[in-house]
């Protein structure tokens, strides 16, 4: 087939990645036994959405390339369709299209039809604002009229693609959540989404995507199949390696090969389990292991939530105030009356207005210096004045408190107002920065390590805490947003973690309330006598009113 006018150039075989060039020249993808058992099982899944958390080098991408070559080569009446591959690097895209080109040669020969060479072209992409850009891409065109297109980066307009979409190494894309959200729109016209990836930590949206499928949130037409390195070894991976490298396979050498791969990770057991066994680590540079977080959640406690829509802000202020005051009486007051007002309280306040959650986290300090969070409050799209109503109500109810407000951005005004109303010595206005995180976040982590903190048992809060990771040696909340587990339309940005760190900061910078009593003016000092009010039978301390002695 002749190149199209949009073709920039034709890719030579020598330009393909080494793994593609290693495929033997006489390799026939249609032969019996070409795919291992786990490869056959995965490509045989016909669900609209299928995900594969996998160990490294298990051959899943190879198998999907063969399956999608058959799809693109088939006519529409036989289930043929376009295929779009979205990898995390340009090299991955070239590898996938190289496999497909190898397979296509044999497949179209069997069909007696033609196929194009690998063509490099510019894929025109357009975002929601109408801005266009060109993405470097590779394609193979079939006589069926369909093509396989490998994009070198994520298009903004994934929703505009039509056909089968393969997202490879999804956990390593810069915007994992955006890729997954956009791809689901393809199903409207009967496409299929295949998501393949090694794991990249529990706080990664790919891990949560797989959990959501397993929990049934995507319905019965979505399937997860996990493939580990051990699965591949049991199904003949070592023998395939020997065939490709010209080695002589033996049971003894297989055991040595297997052990060498496992031992190659040294003391990095978590990395080995993630890369070979598809068991995600708690995070990349994780600061709070899951076992610490779960140990700090011994009881179910209230996680109050007030979520409003954009129309609420357009209501008259008195209507908004009335609604929020009713919400306070119904939802917040029953929790506040249960609190021990005798404790010292630190309150963390992480302000947000639109995209993220706005958090209030009270942290009581017990007699044993244990930090206890009796509840957490989350607000979303609540106007600023109504947020103040709620926050001020909590602070007034606690009484014996010191608070720390995030005054970094839009929360600065609220922080200043709180300092005016409750006293600048009781309300710390914190500018979050690397220096602040470096000084105070380790102190919060130490509470979890020592088992000296109790927080509400809640999966969203746990995920917020798992997001904390070391960035250039400093534990902090990275610029990563994840889907809220209670409402998939909402996003989280480690909001509870920030508020909890602020609350702990407040407990460590506590301001004590104090009063004073004037000394008596009587030269004898306190006379230690009392006069009795017979009517009420109460003692009246009259030291302050005693007349001073005089001299003539």
Summarize the structure.
It comes from plant metagenome. With 552 residues, the protein is α/β, with parallel strands linked by helices.
Task: Summarize the topology.
Blueprint: E1 7-10, H1 18-21, H2 37-43, E2 49-53, H3 60-73, E3 83-86, H4 90-111, E4 119-126, E5 132-141, E6 147-151, E7 164-168, H5 176-183, E8 192-197, H6 205-214, E9 222-224, H7 229-234, H8 237-245, H9 251-263, H10 269-277, H11 290-295, E10 303-307, H12 317-336, E11 344-350, E12 358-365, E13 371-372, E14 376-380, H13 384-398, E15 401-406, H14 412-422, E16 427-430, H15 434-450, E17 453-454, H16 459-466, E18 469-471, E19 474-476, E20 482-483, E21 491-492, H17 495-508, E22 531-533, E23 538-540
Parallel strand pairs: 2-8, 2-9, 3-6, 3-7, 7-8, 10-14, 11-15, 13-17, 15-16
Antiparallel strand pairs: 1-4, 4-5, 5-6, 11-12, 12-13, 12-14, 18-19, 20-21, 22-23
Helix pairs in contact: 2-3, 3-4, 12-13, 15-17
């Amino acid at each position: 087939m002749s190149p199209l006018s949009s073709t920039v150039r034709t890719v030579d075989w020598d330009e393909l990645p080494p793994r593609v060039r290693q495929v033997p020249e006489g390799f026939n993808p249609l032969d019996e036994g070409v795919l291992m058992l786990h490869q056959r099982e995965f490509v045989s899944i016909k669900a609209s959405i299928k995900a594969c958390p996998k160990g490294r080098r298990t051959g899943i991408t190879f198998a999907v390339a063969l399956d999608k070559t058959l799809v693109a080569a088939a006519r529409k009446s036989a289930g043929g369709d376009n295929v779009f591959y979205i990898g995390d690097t340009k090299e991955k895209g070239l590898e996938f299209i190289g496999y497909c080109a190898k397979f296509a040669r044999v497949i179209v020969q069997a069909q007696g039809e033609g196929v194009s060479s690998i063509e490099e072209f510019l894929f025109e992409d357009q975002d929601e604002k109408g801005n266009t850009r060109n993405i470097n891409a590779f394609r193979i065109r079939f006589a069926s009229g369909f093509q396989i297109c490998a994009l070198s980066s994520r298009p903004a307009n994934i929703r505009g693609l039509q056909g089968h979409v393969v997202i490879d190494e999804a956990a390593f894309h810069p915007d994992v959540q955006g890729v997954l959200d956009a791809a689901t729109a393809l199903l409207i016209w009967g496409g299929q989404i295949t998501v393949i990836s090694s794991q990249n930590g529990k706080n990664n949206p790919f891990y949560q995507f797989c959990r959501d499928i397993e929990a049934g949130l995507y319905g019965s037409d979505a399937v997860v199949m996990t493939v580990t390195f051990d699965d591949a070894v049991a199904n003949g991976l070592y023998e395939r390696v020997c065939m490709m490298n010209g080695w002589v396979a033996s049971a003894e050498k297989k055991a040595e090969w297997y052990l060498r791969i496992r031992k190659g990770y040294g003391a990095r057991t978590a990395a080995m389990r993630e890369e070979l066994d598809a068991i995600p680590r708690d995070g990349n540079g994780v600061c709070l292991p899951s076992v610490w977080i779960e140990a700090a959640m011994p009881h179910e406690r209230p996680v109050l939530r007030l979520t409003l829509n954009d129309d609420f802000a357009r209501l008259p202020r008195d209507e908004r105030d009335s609604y929020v005051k009713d919400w306070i009486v119904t939802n917040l007051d029953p929790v506040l009356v249960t609190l021990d007002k005798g404790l010292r309280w630190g309150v963390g306040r992480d302000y947000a207005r639109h995209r993220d959650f706005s958090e209030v986290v009270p942290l009581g300090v017990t007699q044993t210096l244990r930090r206890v969070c009796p509840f957490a409050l989350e607000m979303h799209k609540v106007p600023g004045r109504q947020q103040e109503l709620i926050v001020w109500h909590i602070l007034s109810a606690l009484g014996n408190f010191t608070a720390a407000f995030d005054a970094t951005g839009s929360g600065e005004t609220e922080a200043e107002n709180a300092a005016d109303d409750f006293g600048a010595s009781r309300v710390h206005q914190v500018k979050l920065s690397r220096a602040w995180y470096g000084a105070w976040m380790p102190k919060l982590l130490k509470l979890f390590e020592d088992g000296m903190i109790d927080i509400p048992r809640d999966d969203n809060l746990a995920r917020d805490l798992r997001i904390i990771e070391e960035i250039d040696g400093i534990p902090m909340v990275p610029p990563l947003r994840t889907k809220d587990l209670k409402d998939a339309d909402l996003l989280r940005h480690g909001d509870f973690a920030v508020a909890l760190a602020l609350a702990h900061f407040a407990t460590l910078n506590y301001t004590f309330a104090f009063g004073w009593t004037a000394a008596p003016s009587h030269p004898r000092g306190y006379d230690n006598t009392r006069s009795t009010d017979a009517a009420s039978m109460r003692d009246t301390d009259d030291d302050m009113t005693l007349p001073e002695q005089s001299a003539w």
